[in-house]
Amino acid sequence: QSTVIQEPSLSVSPGGTVTLTCGLSSGSVSTGHYPSWYQQTPGHAPHILTYNTNSRPSGVPDRFSGSILGNKAALTITGTQTDDEADYYCFLYMGEDIHTVI
């Protein structure tokens, strides 16, 4: 059974660009895993940023973009802002199992 792997933390200066990745302990992430990314700030429920690799719900700024980079899913945030400081969670569809990192 694969484990989802994300960076424990990343730092970026305001206005910069940062890419978060989401990999599997065995195998590669593909569009068939339908990667989605959620953002959670303290005291608030998670809200979705991207789904189905690179789709964004209405209201999510286009500075958040999802992709596949090599064998991982990725979330790139451009023009970072101070209120982007949050926890970010990747979800992957794994057949009957849903995997995430908390």
Provide an overview of this structure.
The protein is mainly β. The protein has one domain (4-100): Sandwich (Immunoglobulin-like). The chain contains no helices and eight strands. The strands form two sheets. A four-stranded antiparallel β-sheet has the order 1-2-6-5, with no helix packed on it. A four-stranded antiparallel β-sheet has the order 4-3-7-8, with no helix packed on it. Strand 3 (36-40) and strand 4 (47-50) form a beta hairpin.
CATH superfamily: Immunoglobulins
Mean pLDDT: 93
Shape: globular
- Reading off the top of the CATH hierarchy, the class is best stated as Mainly Beta
Largest sheet: 4 strands, antiparallel
**Beta-strand level of the residues, as a percent range?**
35-45%
Second CATH tier, the architecture? Sandwich
Domain count, please report it. 1
Annotation, overall tally of beta strands: 8
Provide the CATH topology.
Immunoglobulin-like
**Rg from alpha-carbon coordinates:** 13 Å
Order of helical and strand elements: EEEEEEEE
SS summary, helix count: 0
Domain Ig-like: 1-90
InterPro entries: Ig-like_dom (IPR007110), Ig-like_dom_sf (IPR036179), Ig-like_fold (IPR013783), Ig_sub (IPR003599), Ig_V-set (IPR013106), IgV_Light_Chain (IPR050150)
Protein name: Ig lambda chain V region 4A
